[in-house]
Specification:
Blueprint: H1 4-21, E1 25-27, E2 38-41, E3 46-57, E4 60-64, E5 66-71, E6 74-79, E7 87-92, E8 97-102, H2 103-106, E9 111-115, E10 128-129, H3 135-141, H4 146-158
Parallel strand pairs: 3-7, 9-10
Antiparallel strand pairs: 1-2, 2-3, 3-4, 4-9, 5-6, 7-8
């Protein structure tokens, strides 16, 4: 079993490589201590990306979205906010896939479950389908990489009641 820091490093490298293969310019902070690991330059905007490692459990990819650090008073765990990051990138080694999750949709979440297949009980509320967040599909579906940043921002606008037009 790999140490958490090893899994995180491997995930960060895999995410950077996947984004670069898709034509996204990937930047890395020169110093540690920022709440984000990478910056994606989509052409339209810069996205601060926090990288996470996900594991597959059957039809679900699970990933922790919190941070954990040691302080003088013990371990401190916190969630990320939109002031700190724009998106989470989750790399699943078992699938060799990268998922890009907008912070607007996952603010305050400490864990995420991405379903690879619909729930067997047909539940749809609160279900995050992995394909909706697949980085390669996001880029392919929107043609231009510059639209990726716009798509991430737009995801928050379509969430909520169904149909989306039923609320102001």
């Amino acid at each position: 079993m790999r140490r958490s820091v090893d899994r995180g490093g491997i995930a960060e490298l895999a995410i950077a490589a996947a984004a670069a293969r898709l034509g996204i310019v990937v930047l890395r902070p020169l110093v540690d201590g920022t709440r984000y690991d990478l910056v994606f330059d989509t052409g339209a905007r810069l996205l601060r990306v926090q990288c996470k490692s996900g594991t597959r459990h059957g039809d679900v990819v699970r990933a922790g979205l919190r941070t954990s650090r040691r302080t003088a008073s013990g371990e401190r765990r916190t969630a990320y906010t939109a002031e700190e990051v724009d998106a989470f990138a989750v790399y699943c080694h078992e699938l060799d896939r990268v998922f890009l999750l907008p912070i607007e949709r996952f603010t305050g979440c400490t864990y995420v479950h991405l379903r690879l297949a619909p729930a067997r009980n047909n539940q749809r509320a609160g279900v995050n389908l992995a394909d909706a967040y697949d980085l390669a599909k996001m880029v392919a579906d929107h043609g231009a990489i510059a639209q990726l940043g716009e798509r991430l921002h737009g995801m928050q606008e379509v969430a909520g009641s169904s149909p989306a037009s039923s609320t102001p």
